[in-house]
Amino acid sequence: YPFTFQLMKNPVACANDELFDNDQFKIQVLKSRICPQGQFIIQAQFIPYSAGIKEATAWLEVSGRKQRTPIKLMAQGIAPEVDFSYDVLDFPKLTIGSTGRHSVEMRNFSAIQVEFQMQ
């Protein structure tokens, strides 16, 4: 007989069990069967929304086992690398009513698009 498995959100069985769900870790194929002497590859994906170390735990429930097995997911999101041509915009003395202008160049050295907002 094939055994079945599913990746769950909770470590123990409870009435309102849910399959694994996380906003930064995605697991493809949360529930399936494996034939005798067969194998199955579960693919995980990390989609960071902020910098820092992120962790999650999926609980593997296998038919015939009493306890669920933890699968720990751990990854690090890094911030984009952005550089500015100046740290300080130093304006010269100006006569009242006149206008002084400066510009700052931003460079994105990252492999991803960078969004910014001046506040």
The ordered H/E elements are EEEEEEEE
Low-confidence stretches: none
- The tally of beta strands, per DSSP, is 8
Oligomeric state as shown: single chain
Helix content: under 10%
| Percent of residues in beta strands | 35-45%
> Strand order of the main beta sheet, please?
3-1-5-6
Q: Total number of helical segments?
A: 0
Shape: rod-shaped
Biggest β-sheet strands, sense, barrel: 4 strands, antiparallel
Structure classification: mainly beta
Distance between the termini: 62 Å
**Mean pLDDT rating:** 84
Radius of gyration: 25 Å
Description:
The chain is an all-beta fold and 119 residues long. It has a domain at 3-77. Helix content is 0%, strand content 37%. It is built from no helices and eight strands. It has strands spanning 3-8, 25-28, 31-34, 43-46, 52-62, 69-77, 82-84, 106-108. A four-stranded antiparallel beta sheet has the order 3-1-5-6, with no helix packed on it. A hairpin with a 6-residue loop joins strand 5 (52-62) and strand 6 (69-77). The protein is rod-shaped. The N and C termini lie far apart (62 Å). The relative contact order is 0.20.
Observed structural traits:
single chain, 119 residues, mainly beta, four-stranded antiparallel β-sheet
